[in-house]
Design goal:
The chain has no helices and 20 strands. The chain is mostly beta strands. The strands form 4 sheets. An 8-stranded antiparallel sheet has the order 1-2-18-15-20-14-13-12, with no helix packed on it. A 6-stranded antiparallel sheet has the order 3-4-10-6-8-11, with no helix packed on it. A 3-stranded antiparallel sheet has the order 5-9-7, with no helix packed on it. It is globular and about 45 Å long.
Length: 245
């Protein structure tokens, strides 16, 4: 999916956005020495969370935790990410770090990962950090459809205010209906491709594409081609529409 000179498939709209690799702007940040970041989704566009890609151009050492009140989720795309006292995370390893978690991050040169951050909405005690790997998570059929398997990466307990899932589509599988709801999403295509409907737009999507879906935007995905399709998806969870975020 290489666009012609001067063109991009990225499309930013009032209630959704498609962010494609050819339009990524890689920058440096003081809190991430040795890394380059491409922020794909941010509150500036209307989202209540931030999502970006991070690549280590040098070894990363003891990267500081997120700001006060901010939760962080990391999903490794390549290389190795390390947190003190925990096994190293390889490709498709992930970490959820609640607010006030003092764990630092280190990574080898060449490592890349997805970074999500959001203002955590606590209910009772803060949950503990979660470290895991997609390979350890059993998939379950979505609404009984075994051509569409969901792997839930975080516990569903009420203390968690976010959900991160891997959606696995058999070739030709699709969501059962066009969804509309008050939750918003951040999504990264991992494998395969298909067509995503967002509002009244229809977007061809493939591996590396990212999507923001705002609250109540009509949304639907159908997988195309001979290979299975997968994406990582975030949504605010376990909190009602009147809970302030």
């Amino acid at each position: 999916m290489n666009p012609s000179f001067g063109q991009t498939r990225s499309d930013i709209r009032r209630n959704h956005a498609l962010l494609t690799p050819e339009s990524h702007e890689w920058i440096t940040q003081p809190d991430w020495p040795g890394a380059e970041l491409a922020f794909l989704i941010s509150p500036d566009m209307g989202a209540k969370f931030a999502m970006g890609l991070v690549r280590a151009v040098e070894d990363l050492s003891e990267i500081a935790p997120a700001a006060a009140g901010v939760a962080r989720f990391i999903f490794v795309l390549g290389g190795e990410v390390r947190f003190p006292g925990n096994p190293a995370l390889g490709p498709e390893g992930y970490a959820f770090l609640p607010p006030q978690e003092e764990t630092t991050l280190s990574a080898s040169k060449g490592t890349s990962f997805v970074l999500f951050e959001w203002h955590f909405l606590a209910r009772g005690d803060l949950p503990a950090p979660v470290f895991g790997s997609v390979a350890e998570i059993e998939g379950t059929p979505l609404r009984g459809d075994d051509w569409l398997m969901v792997q839930k990466l975080l516990p569903t307990e009420a203390g968690f205010d976010a959900e991160f899932n891997i959606m696995n589509f058999h070739p030709g599988a699709s969501l059962a209906y066009v969804e509309t709801h008050f939750m918003e999403h951040g999504l990264l295509m991992l494998d395969g491709g298909g067509v995503y409907r967002l509002d009244d737009q229809w977007y061809p999507v493939g591996a590396g594409d990212a999507i923001w879906m705002g609250p109540h935007v009509p949304q639907w995905f159908g997988a195309l081609g001979r290979d299975s399709s997968r994406y990582l998806i975030y949504k605010n969870y376990n909190r009602g529409p009147l809970d302030k975020r």
